[in-house]
Amino acid sequence: MTDKDIITLAHGNGGFLTHNLIKQVFTSVFDNPILNIQGDSAIVKLEDNNIVFTTDSFVIKPLFFPGGDIGKLAVTGTVNDLAVSGAIPKYISASFIIEEGVAIDQLKAISESMQKTAENAGVKIVTGDTKVVERGSADKLFITTTGIGNLIYKDTVYKPSNMRAGDCVLLSGTLGDHTTSILSVRSEYPLKINTISDCAPLNDLTERLIRAVPKESIRIMRDPTRGGLATTLNEFTNGCGLSIEIEEAKIPCKQEVQAVCELTGFDLLYLANEGKLVVVCAKEQCRKLLGIMHSHPLG
Amino acid sequence: MTDKDIITLAHGNGGFLTHNLIKQVFTSVFDNPILNIQGDSAIVKLEDNNIVFTTDSFVIKPLFFPGGDIGKLAVTGTVNDLAVSGAIPKYISASFIIEEGVAIDQLKAISESMQKTAENAGVKIVTGDTKVVERGSADKLFITTTGIGNLIYKDTVYKPSNMRAGDCVLLSGTLGDHTTSILSVRSEYPLKINTISDCAPLNDLTERLIRAVPKESIRIMRDPTRGGLATTLNEFTNGCGLSIEIEEAKIPCKQEVQAVCELTGFDLLYLANEGKLVVVCAKEQCRKLLGIMHSHPLG
Questions:
Q1: Contacts of B158 in chain A (CB under 8 A)
Q2: How far apart are CA B52 and CA B126, in angstroms?
């Protein structure tokens, strides 16, 4: 590989090389009419003026892992934060902090993965920023995405205080796949396992669930990422005067994930997931919502 | 200083210490009713559904400099990107990538500075994220802010193709103050100068200018940050078939900034500014707009 193929500090100075990089790696991949105006900001139109707004930084190591990469994760994570708030995600911004020395081919593969994920989720990447930092000042690449969208029901906020005694907790699939896939490619855990990250946009599933039942029946939803299911349920019950009972034996998990937990001492309930959904709902809608989950590719 | 006062990896794992950090350093400082719902997303209401959306990552070294800090810069930069697009900035998200070992007091000072800047600019910090990376994996602190707001005139996009032969270029003040202030505190340039960064939100100034003249009279606006005035003017003329003539001798700059340019060989026209505005306008509105700039504290 020649110097031409890696990121240098000059790619970050705002001049000719910065413009070339942005064109070659980002705008040509995220190609859409809003992005192409290329001003300092994107001008977008939403359905209405009740806006859900969320941001997340992604610092995953390594950049590529079984079932995904930092780009897929960066779009998925922000789409899912909007989805579990009861919104239809529409537009995404992406800001890249790149360490000097990163291969331009890798960046391009990551932006292509972001675009593919955005298409799958029905969102557009409309604005962004690129910074380059000196070798040793960042861990290859950090991506921060921010998303906006409209609420499906204008006046419905999913929050812990909606929960009632007797409500059900639904979980959309096996736990721990994401963390396990990352561990499998980190050199400090040379595990011979083939777990694939569950990284996937949940907005199609959440929209189906929301539209299927009376709007107060879903109390709160969350994607149990960093901190896992245990942290999510803790956040739900914190200060609301209720407790949530789960039967550990009934929590679904893949055999190899179970094995990794036994080997390493990790607690399945604290492992990160990137394509799972937790829903607290009224008991009478539990079967219907579970049926929708079962019939969905991500359920 | 004890271990209790610095950021550790445990502050980033999504558990108890993460919640404490967010509460102690961020939500207690950015305190507002929207933020306090503390879901995965903020739910905000804008005036209408034509939304301007922009993002920027801030990687400045050192974190504190004469006239500002990374927090002030992170709010100002995003406010200014919205302002020069012709929008009224309303809501900001802030995502923090923190290197293990950073002092919590420093983080708190930075978030206080963000809050003060947000108040001055009339925007609210409503959602955010915090990640902690291992020592050596980031340069102390990176902040990514994303902003949304409404256009002052719904159907007006300020873009290079609006420019006409004979238009005037207005500049709101002296160039190079920001870069010079940063150089003065970097150890590789032990310069004995007292230049203060011009870092300031421009949205009050841009709104006054926009509202003062017929809406087509202002063709394009930009804050000449990274890459300086030269890069901004280059972006304006690129591909629009016009050229911009400037008289270098008339470009205002402080004596010490001039001296630094002579000593270091830096070109004033390429130095970064964080509180200056470039406006291209119809010739007949030039005096009026210049008058407004002169009467404004930032002009």
A1: 39
A2: 16
pLDDT, residue B16, reads 84
Bigger pLDDT: A137 vs A222:
A222
B-facing residues of A in 179-208 (CB < 8 A) are: none
Name the residue with tokens 């199609």: A204
- The pLDDT confidence band at residue B192, using thresholds 50, 70 and 90, is confident
Q: Determine the length of chain A.
A: 299
User: A133 and B127 in contact by Cβ < 8 A?
Assistant: no
* Residue type for position B167: D
CA distance A24 to A290: 45
**Domains with residue ranges and CATH for chain B:** 3-151 (3.30.1330.10), 160-295 (3.90.650.10)
CA dist B234 and A19 (Å) reads: 12
The arithmetic mean of pLDDT across residues A263-280, rounded, is 94
Six-digit token string for B165: 């032969």
CA distances from B122 to A17, A51, A249, B202 (A): 35, 18, 52, 11
Distance from CA of A163 to the nearest CA of B (A): 15
Taking contacts as CB-CB distances below 8 angstroms, the residues of chain B near A142 are: 97, 138, 142
Q: CB contact, 8 Å: B59 with chain A? A: yes
CA A216 to mean position of chain CA atoms: 25
Could you tell me how far CA B86 lies from the centroid of its own chain?
Answer: 15
Residue A245: partners with Cβ closer than 8 Å, 6 or more residues away: none
What pTM does this model have?
0.95
